[in-house]
Amino acid sequence: MKNEKLISDDGIRFDGRKIEELRPIKFSLGMLKNADGSAFVEWGKNKILVGVMGPREAHPKHLALADRCRIEVLYRMATFSVGERKSPAPARREHELSKVIKEALEPAIFVEMYPRTTIDIYVEVLQADGSTRCAGISAAALALADAGIPMRDLVSSIAIGKVEGQLVVDVKDEEDKQGDSDMPLAIMPSKNAVTLLQMDGLLTHEEFIRSLEMAKKGCMEVYQRQKEALQEHFQKSANNDEET
Amino acid sequence: MKDNYVPSVKKRQIMELAESGKRIDGRSLMDYRPLDIKPGFIEKAEGSAAVHLGGTYVVAGVKIQPEKPFSDTPDKGVMTVNSEFVSMASPEFEPGPPDIKSIELARVVDRGLRESETIDTKKMCIYKGKLVWTVFIDIFVLDHCGNLIDAAALAALTALFNARMPELEFKDVKQDVTNTLIEDMTPQDGWKEKVHPVTEERTVFPDRKKSPLPLRAIPVNVTLAKIGDKFFVDPSKDEEEVMDCRLSVTFTEDGNICAMQKGEPGTLTPEEVLRAVDIAKIKSQELRNRLPIPEDILKSIEKAKAKKKEKD
Question: What is the CATH number of domain A25-238?
């Protein structure tokens, strides 16, 4: 793998995608019985399950906020989600991702409607294949919607990478590991508001400007899939209601 | 006084229904909830399975890696079972170090597999005293609607069935034995031939990549809840909340018992234990018939059995 090229001369990536092509994305909602809201996403080989609990009483109580609800995110990777078994103890990476995911989702939630409560968002990566935070954020937005939590908009996310000198949309594991840079971005599409932005690697100023454009376009595509999944889910519940 | 009306009303209702052989969710006392097993759910794991048992949802993944053996079993592979109660699975689960119930779950599943000698660990040796294959079985509880033990045991066993051995890589050999194995070994010079397994049969290593695990048993666990004087097969969460105690019994395909666990503070008379074991035996065979077992695994289990008979 290491010596192989990730992008062919005619601009095809090693998994057969074009430069700006996303992997197949399939969201589904409401599969968990205990969680108040849930969503599952298969994003390429990523398999991520998100469960939302709440709004519920803040615990411990002294952490409750008087004017709004507290958002807690726990991003975890299953031990078998990656090539070499991951230790079950949470790593620093998981702590950081939990934090940035929380900050990516919070702007979309009407937190002021639920003072003194907590909404817990559990992001469980069952299989990881690059851009897990983006897939996790996008699925979490749907899980929040499934829980019936009022939101300003969905949050859609995508990562732009730089591989062998070229900017590519939706970074896969190998492209992340061997590529030159990775820039995950999340936005509330209808508000045109960026809620997550990270970057590691090296980009020229011009490349950054292009990356941002590509990311916005990519997020719109994710947004479309999210809306389709929402519609399908609620259509199904509506049909079930009619039957019973 | 503690408010315990709800559980006691629920318990009375469950017991009254049971008098006419019924349960809250419409099952008979002997029925399992609908069971759905998806083998190979996680492609990146060596083996995996997703199990739905009613609303209970469990995913098990198997990773197989070369590790140092324990000093008292230098020529045997290692198996470990670990379980995680993911917080989204129940409002009662909290993030943090493993809950005592999660440890019990992992240990009961472990015992069923270990005592039935499901994995032939002697065939998992790479280099005696230095390097053996370790099988990590990780169970993730994603939705808790009762009877986690049976769901987890089925997921773990199915994950072992569809597990395939990874290829041994040079860096693993080099790293794990910190150059003491063969000092002048380089990746080019047929290093694999220099690392010999101690067993006479090379069924696992190093010739056949993608070969299955050396398995030789099909242990199946059945859990019963005791409420009043009745047993409830495959208890739901409601039933678990009000049960006096539970009994889990693991049977091998020969009808032998390989692990048991009584849980919760209630008691059983010896006669009740015998009755529960009889029920568990019947139900374990029913469950076994529904397991997706690949052909090659079935054959290898039969072969291992025939061989054992010969020896006896």
Answer: 3.30.230.70
Mutate to test the interface with A, among B43, B44, B134 (most CBs of A within 10 A): B44
Q: Each residue of B160-174: pLDDT tens digit?
A: 999 998 877 766 666
Q: Tell whether A45 is within 8 A of chain B (Cβ).
A: yes
Calculate the alpha carbon distances from A232 to A142, A153, A226, A229, B55 in Å: 12, 18, 10, 5, 22
Is B40 within 8 Å of chain A by CB? Answer: no
Question: Position of tokens 């670990």?
Answer: B82
Both structure tokens of B1: 């006084």
What chain A residue is nearest to B60 in terms of C-alpha separation?
A: A80
Domain boundaries, chain A: 25-238
CA distance A140 to A128: 16
Of the residues A1, A2, A33, A34, the best mutation for testing chain B's interface (the one with the most B CB atoms within 10 Å of its CB) is A34
Does residue B82 belong to the interface with chain A, where contact is any CB pair within 8 Å?
Answer: yes
Tokens linked to B226: 């005791």
> Cis peptide leading into A150, omega within 30 of 0?
no
Give the tokens for residue B164. Answer: 């395939």
Beta carbons of A34 and B90 less than 8 Å apart: yes
Q: With contact defined as beta carbons under 8 Å apart, do B103 and B141 qualify?
A: no
Residue listed under structure tokens 């409420």:
B227
Q: Which of B53, B47, B59 is nearest to B88 (CA)?
A: B59
> Above 0.95 for ipTM, yes or no?
no
pLDDT tens readout for residues B104-133? 999 999 999 999 999 999 888 887 777 889
Asked if A76 reaches chain B (Cβ–Cβ under 8 Å), the answer is yes
Determine, for residues B88 and A122 on separate chains, whether the beta-carbon distance falls below 8 Å. Answer: yes
Taking the CA of residue B13 and the nearest CA in chain A, the distance in Å comes to 23
User: Between A32 and B130, whose confidence is greater?
Assistant: A32
Tell me whether residues B142 and A53 touch, CB distance under 8 A.
Answer: no
